[in-house]
Amino acid sequence: MKKCFLILSVLLLPLTMAAGSADGSEKKAGQAIKEELKSHVKVYGFIRNFFAYDTRESASGTGNLFYYLPFDKELDSDGNDLNATPSFRFLSITSRVGFDVLGYRIGNMDVTAKVETDFYAGLNGSTGTATLRLRQAYLKLGWKDLPMGGDKAAVSLLMGQAWHPMAADQPDVLGLATGAPFNPFNRSPQVLMDASLGRHFTLSAGLVYQMQYVSTGPDGATADYMKYGILPEAYAAVSFRAGGFLAKAGASLLSIKPYRVYEDVLEDGSAGVHKASGRMTTVSPYVYLQYTKGSFALKAKTVYGGAADYLNLVGGYGVTAMNNGNFEYAATRTSSSWISLSAGKKVKAVLMAGYLRNLGADSDFMDNGLRYWFFSKDGGDFKNLAQAVRLAPSVSWNIGKFTLGLEYEFDTVQYGSHRNADGSVMADRQEITPGEYAYRHWVTNHRILLVTRFNF
After folding, report:
1. Which of 95, 166, 232, 409 could form a disulfide with 447 if both were Cys (CB 3.0 to 4.6 A apart)?
2. Rounded distance between C-alpha atoms, residue 192 and residue 258, angstroms
3. Is pLDDT larger for residue 288 or for residue 65?
4. Which of 60-64, 271-275, 407-411 is predicted least confidently?
5. Distance between CA atoms of 445 and 390, rounded to whole angstroms?
């Protein structure tokens, strides 16, 4: 913590000295820095421990704490399911520290900033050494009380790494994944403008770039598809707020370039390398509703995601045609929805329910789906996922700055044996060839999560 204050002190020293010169102050630099920190910097964070027990092998993020979905069956030579194996882990790597910079004003413009980090990096499964990683780092410019007819308007401009605007509204759960993959989960570099028009309406628009959470494709998961596609993701939304009610509707436009080159076989039998063209473009709309009154909160969201694996939603895209180096693509669609209810302060009870469904693409993929990239996590491939359900009741006790929480999470996934040409999963008993039928089956994981947290 002392090192963090020292870094901030060095950064704020020129500003402090300039201020001292302007008003003729003779305060010592050290005292001026202390006053600057006290007036404009707020330190926050927590020490958090997760104790997690699972009845089945599942896709989960670093340290197995960021939970997604249970893996499909994997049978050994004797017909036993290798993934039907329980596990337990206990880690503190999500402990967090952050700095809010507040109270600066230049003319009629407010300037704030945030830097936030935790130790959720450097692990391979449940083994390794946790290291600091960047969660958020942004500045925000704001203008208030702007004239707008007979009312007032306010505009803010955020620049830096922050929550993706489609992921910012989250269910009330104790689990680290905050509802993923039923809810988007993504923090990315962005420029986001919010314009509050009067008391009820807010318009939002932004450009988002990929960094940690990226699209997959022919070269694996990488931000290069956006880098060489030039265009960042575009986002727009409108919100309505009245009393304890909030309604929001928005959409994102993603346009990336998966193939830059491709290979084939020349007439002489040698390998040929050619420049490729073509883009994968898709729109993902969503709706969010919220009602709060006192300690009660009701929240709900539904997303119609296209190629939204970069948002940690189940989905993907594939090649539908290729002519003279021009690739055509189609995105699979996934309906992802959730609802959460919470009540209480000192003792808080929560219930979250989620449902998602793989709807397939608008066109068939070529090459029997070989050029088809889909949501995959922790070594698991979810191309054959048809639908999934989650129920997560929890209770937490808040005693001052200390919280003790207990959550039970029920996740069940329906997998299929075969896929249709558009990426959707074949229906149960759908005929493939005479006498051969596709089938579906469910797998379930039960997770018990104990959380302790001390805020500072």
Report:
1. 409
2. 26
3. 288
4. 60-64
5. 10
Q: Is residue 74 part of a domain?
A: yes
Secondary structure letter of residue 232 according to DSSP: P
Nearest to 375, CA basis, from 339, 330, 334: 334
Both structure tokens of 444: 């379930």
- The per-residue pLDDT for range 289-331, each reduced to its tens digit, is 999 999 999 999 999 999 999 999 999 999 999 999 999 999 9
Q: Long-range contact list for 247-250, CB < 8 A, 24+ apart?
A: 247/287, 247/288, 247/289, 247/290, 248/169, 248/287, 248/288, 248/289, 249/285, 249/286, 249/287, 249/288, 250/165, 250/166, 250/204, 250/285, 250/286
Q: Residue 432: give the domain boundaries.
A: 47-455
> What torsion do the CA atoms of 124, 127, 128, 132 make, to the nearest 10 degrees?
70
Model confidence pTM above 0.85: yes
- Tens of pLDDT, residue by residue over 284-294, are 999 999 999 99
- Structural element, H or E, at residue 373: strand 372-374
Locate tokens 């073509």: which residue? 278
Give a yes or no: residue 13 inside a domain.
no
DSSP 375-411: -EETTEE-TTEEEEEEEEEEEEEEETTEEEEEEEEEE
Handedness of CA 166, 167, 169, 173 (dihedral sign): positive
Is 105 in a helix, a strand, or coil? strand
Token pair recorded at residue 422: 């558009």
CATH of residue 367's domain is 2.40.160.10
* C-beta of residue 337 within 8 angstroms of C-beta of residue 302: yes
Q: Give the other-Cβ count within 10 Å of 194's Cβ.
A: 19
Give the type of residue at 243.
Answer: G
139 Cβ contact list (under 8 Å, min separation 6): 111, 112, 113, 158, 159, 160
Specify whether the CB–CB gap between 409 and 441 falls below 8 A.
no
- Residue 270 domain-assigned? yes
Are 91 and 63 contacting, i.e. CB atoms less than 8 angstroms apart?
Answer: yes
How many structural domains comprise the chain?
1
**Helical H segments across 86-235, by residue range:** 224-227
What is the Cα–Cα distance from 3 to 10, expressed in whole angstroms? 11
- Alpha-carbon distances, residue 257 vs 101, 219, 277, 303, 434 (angstroms): 38, 11, 8, 23, 40
26 backbone φψ class: left, alpha, beta (φ>0; ψ -120 to 50): alpha
